[in-house]
Amino acid sequence: MNRRALESEYVSQHLNEWIDLIFGFKQRGKEAVKSHNVFYYLTYENAVNIDLITDENERASIEQQIEYFGQTPSQLFTKPHPKRFSLEESNGLPIFWDFTNKSNMKAYFVQASKSPILYINSNSNSKIFVLDSSRYLSIYQLNTSSNIAGYLNISNKKALSNNNQSIEPTFALNDITTKTVVEIQFEEKFNSLFQDNTNISPLHSKEAILFEQETQSKMNRKKIGVSFATELTRFSNCFEICQNEKIFLSCGYWDNSFKLSNTENAKLIQSINHHKDIVTCLAIDGDILVTGSRDTTVAVWKLNLKEGKVDEKPTKILYGHDDEVSCIALSCELDIVVSGSKDGSCIIHNLSSGIYYKSIFLSQDLSFKIPVSMLKLSTEGHILVFSENDRTLRLFSVNGNLICLKSISENIIDWRLTQNSQYLIIGSERGIIDVLELVNFNLVQSYEFNQTVKSLCLVNEDRSILSGFENGYLLFGIWQF
């Protein structure tokens, strides 16, 4: 709440007044007196030259007074500081999107696969990586084919509607190898899948250019890795794209390995067999990779992005779990790695040294285990935990203190945090996409579909969402703020 107040439009419009008082023309003189902004004279810069004082007692007295009262900042401006542009006067884009002000979503669909879409991700807001359950990897390109300002300030544009009027498209999702435009038919059944507060925009033949795919797109898809272990049921923690978008990391294979594949041709770069059982999860931050396994251990690896390879041996092995490691989250900035296990615990280690910090148990009764299904670390160090056994969301501080919890009616399949870690987007087994406030799990927006949400991805600085469904459809949603 304090952060919202400090980042509000009201504060922005009065920021110049604060500058005038602290650094500006109201710091000294008549304007300071008028503004009741006068302090003890020794606090001001150049009020006294201590070097010219010869009396030791007087000098010590003045130094103590300055030390006691403190010092006023240097005066930087002698004229009123200009007022900041309002949101309307600028480009109309807030630093962070406020989902509480959102009324609807423009949504487009395309059948990207006939298999469930297990993973969607993008590091650059231009390339979109899509993996289905048949292990086919497709790469899409996001294009702004018309005026980008018109797209970003979308409330000033006419939305695509159910009639056949010709409207200039503002956003495009293209296959990266596109040469031929393919007409995409809109599924009319999606018309009834939204709540009342949601607008849906079908794709007619005139707007087919919004989605371009090569005619032989099935032949151009690339198959990654080998068969997944049959006993593995949750795949949201099994895939990652490196920062340079050239390496695709995957795990969950029957041969107890995790694999590095080239995103351009799907060729295997490396297959690392270190764990003694199936690698059940992995996570990456920069050039640090962390893997978790059914053998109860967590391994930290150094990734050489130039060579596109992982060091053959891990830099650290982390212990502490009594059962399968089910999920991992790490932050190089916070220098911590958090691992969740089926034994009901989350263990925090120092990422650099491997030193054990703390264990968090979901159940207060240690004889009753609540397995950890999913983990997420916010930019502020909050630890977000979900267990599909009791279908409860929990938020912990970095010190392991429970901040809040919320029971939900459905099983979460995938989730994403916004860049400012203010909102949590969750996709559920029942086909619901919810937007929650992270600090208290209050529901902000909800969208219902008739297919299980298998994967989520936020793109375009959180202004748009991509979601993969069990039936192979890909949703591209544009939030209208």
Automatic annotation (TrEMBL):
The keyword Glycoprotein does not apply. Residues 1-84 form the BEACH domain. Pfam families: Beach, NBCH_WD40. Keywords: WD repeat. InterPro entries: BEACH_dom (IPR000409), BEACH_dom_sf (IPR036372), BEACH_Domain (IPR050865), NBCH_WD40 (IPR046851), WD40/YVTN_repeat-like_dom_sf (IPR015943), WD40_repeat_dom_sf (IPR036322), WD40_rpt (IPR001680). One of its GO terms (cellular component) is membrane. The keyword Nucleotidyltransferase does not apply. PANTHER family: BEACH DOMAIN-CONTAINING PROTEIN (PTHR13743:SF112), BEIGE/BEACH-RELATED (PTHR13743). This is Beach domain-containing protein.
